[in-house]
Amino acid sequence: MSQLLDRVRAAAAGYAPGQGRPLRGYLLTMAGYAGLTGTLAGLARLTGRRAPERISGLDVVLISCATHKVSRLLAKDSVTSPLRAPFTRYEGTTGDAELGEQVRGTGVRHSVGELISCPFCLGVWVATGFAAGLVFAPRFTRLAAATFTAVAASDTLQLVYAAVQQLPRRAAED
């Protein structure tokens, strides 16, 4: 067993020498995800719930858009910054209604900070939540997904509207 631990430590040390990558924190994060999905599968089995035979194309589009919006909301929105504050440091704004934050800490704190400030990383967790919702509460899940999809569409329209308003100014500058 000690040889195995020595090999694991050597592999971790050789992975990114001097860069302090929180591999142990990443392992714990992955274990948390595996535990969550295992718990959801166990609950489904205990309650007699089954995964759908097929997922409709509409559900995939709905959940994809909702996952995008919820992931960005959690990872970048100023309103959700108190959730990220223990793991990140505010650096400024990075775009329309989005914050730029630097991950802080080491080990697990750093890896959690990376997870919750990265919409791409959070997307896996959020999509898993929506998938579980389709098993346990499909009607409510579709309603929630439709709501966040509508917010994503509204955001897009707001950005398009703002860009169109700038067209006369840009044309005058040319």
Structure description:
The protein has seven helices and two strands, in the order H-H-H-H-E-E-H-H-H. With 174 residues, the chain is mainly alpha-helical. The protein has one domain (20-161). The chain has a two-stranded antiparallel ribbon. Helix 2 packs across helix 5, helix 3 (57-76) packs across helix 7 and helix 6 (119-136) runs antiparallel to helix 7 (138-173).
Q: Quick summary of this structure?
A:
By secondary structure, the chain is mostly helical. Helices cover 73% and strands 8% of the residues.
List the helices and strands and how they pair.
Elements (H helix, E strand, L loop, with lengths): L1 H14 L7 H25 L9 H20 L4 H4 L3 E8 L2 E6 L3 H10 L2 H18 L1 H36 L1
Antiparallel strand pairs: 1-2
Strand content: 5-15%
- Structurally, the number of domains stands at 1
Q: What number is the mean pLDDT?
A: 93
Cα-atom Rg, whole angstroms?
A: 21 Å
DSSP summary, beta strand count: 2
What is the ordering of alpha helices and beta strands? HHHHEEHHH
Key features of this structure:
174 residues; mainly alpha; two-stranded antiparallel ribbon; 7 helices; 73% helix; 8% strand; flat
